Amino acid sequence: MATLLFLVQLLFIGTLIVPAYTQMEICNLLPNATASNFTVSVTPKAYKANTTYLVTISDNRNLTDSKNVTKYLLQALSPQNASMGEWKVVDRIDCGSTDTAVLNATRKAANWTSPDSNVSSVEIRAYIIFTDESSEFKTMTLNKESEPTTASPATTPNSVSMVQSSSFFIAVIQLPLLLVTSKLLS
User: Fold this and answer.
1) d(CA 131, CA 129)
2) Using CA atoms, how far apart are residues 88 and 93, in angstroms rounded to an integer?
3) What pLDDT is recorded for position 172?
4) Which pLDDT score, from 0 to 100, does residue 65 have?
5) Is the pLDDT of residue 164 over 70?
6) Is a pLDDT exceeding 50 seen at residue 14?
């Protein structure tokens, strides 16, 4: 009975350790990832706070059996390389303080919600993990949409009246100078 209890405890500890180990194993593949030409699309295209984005990975290459996709990983980083926003997925892991969405080989899209912060851009990183434990990445930057500047109607009349008043001021000053100059010349 004691042996059975010991085995159950060992099995329980093993179920806790194995996911943590595989999580770290996936994260260890990211620094060695090579740049690739698969497509990452993000909708909408401009960064805005408190907005939900659809991030989609497309890869039309013909892969061999030894190099099939096992997982897709997604990250969102600020210009300071800090993880930001929230991925709306079932599986998420922490890769060195970076919140990482984990998608299985058949799911190629995830929703990401931007935080309520004032940043100029966000970099979306997408990784493909293959069966041979190699990895590839692609990045896409969402830039803050520039806000159009329009002159208010009150600005135009004020600037016109300013020009009119300065012209009047110049005329008032020149008139006495003209009179003084004509007296001196006569």
Assistant:
1) 7
2) 13
3) 61
4) 63
5) no
6) no
The span from the CA of 103 to the CA of 72, in Å, is 5
95: number of Cβ within 10 Å: 20
Which among 118, 87, 124 has a CA at the least distance from the CA of 103?
87
State the amino acid at position 70 in one-letter form: T
Does residue 45 register a pLDDT over 80?
yes
Dihedral angle of Cα 164, 170, 171, 173, to the nearest 10 degrees = 150
Residue 55, Cβ density class (10 Å: 0-12 exposed, 13-18 middle, ≥19 buried): buried
Pair of tokens at residue 100 = 């990482």
Task: Tell me whether strands 99-104 and 69-77 are parallel, antiparallel or unpaired.
Answer: antiparallel
- pLDDT tens-digit map of 82-136: 999 999 999 999 999 999 999 998 899 999 999 998 899 999 999 999 999 899 9
Q: Are 53 and 44 in contact (CB under 8 A)?
A: yes
Let me know the angle formed at the C-alpha of 94 by 89 and 97, rounded to the nearest 5 degrees. Answer: 125
**Residues 6 or more apart whose Cβ sits within 8 Å of residue 43:** 53, 54, 56
List the structure tokens of 50: 């408190």
Q: Is the pTM of this model over 0.85?
A: no
